[in-house]
Amino acid sequence: MKSTALPLALTTVALCFTAANSAQAAVTLLVDDNIKVTAINGQELKQGLFQENTKKFTLQPGKHVITAKYDRLFNLRRDEHDYLRSANISVAADMMDNQTYRLIMPNQPNDYETAKDYAKRPTLAVSQNGNIIASQKSTSNNNSGIFSGLNKALGGVFGGSGDAQLQNQEVIAALDSQSVQTMPARPVIVQPATQSATTDTLDSFMQLWLKATPSEREKIRQWIAQ
To answer: Is the full-model pTM beyond 0.90?
Structure first.
């Protein structure tokens, strides 16, 4: 079973985020239209199918991993409706103290037919003062189209329950792995060739000495003394 334990550095951060009324956090994250935040820092945000999406979060300064979906209800002709929803997308960004950031999905179309294609692979980004500081494009086209939101509303009976939290935690784990500094490898001591040859010669001589008879050893002593 895959562990959902969070790295220690982000576990503390995960407990710090809250909706906009917190007085302790110093970072403001505004959320653009048609975006539903589903998880932040390893914790899932549960919102009902027809519940208004949260538009503002206050966070502690530091790195945050945010998971969200494209989420838009189109009113069509003859009282028809279509609820477009993308797969979860996660983006990580460093946010500084007393700064305001915006969670966006660039280039959202207003045309329904174009939006159906957009919902398959939207891009989630964090921007500040109009400049994108982090972005990630969706790689899945799940959960778009009519009644796609029923899965979440019915507690995930069609699968996918908890996908936002799991994906968010996987991104955190990947970031944590990248941040760990690799210990330098222990140096390999290469014995010089001359030393190796000398050692081999000495070993051979010792073997000859041990095998030699007393008279042969005496001859060796005389030869060394010359």
So the answer is: no
- Residue in the block written with tokens 């975006």: 35
8 A C-beta contact, residue 132 and residue 125: yes
Evaluated on CA atoms 103, 162, 171, 139, the torsion sign reads negative
Per residue in 185-220, pLDDT (tens digit) is 433 333 444 444 455 566 666 667 667 777 777 777
Are 49 and 93 a contacting pair, CB within 8 Å?
A: no
Render the burial of 190-218: b for 16+ CB within 10 Å, e for the rest: eeeeeeeeeeeeeeeeeeeeeeeeeeeee
Question: Of 88, 104, 101, nearest to 169 (Cα)?
Answer: 88
Beta strands per DSSP E along the chain:
18-19, 27-31, 35-40, 43-44, 56-59, 62-75, 81-85, 89-95, 100-104, 123-128, 131-137
pLDDT band at 77 (very low <50, low <70, confident <90, very high): confident
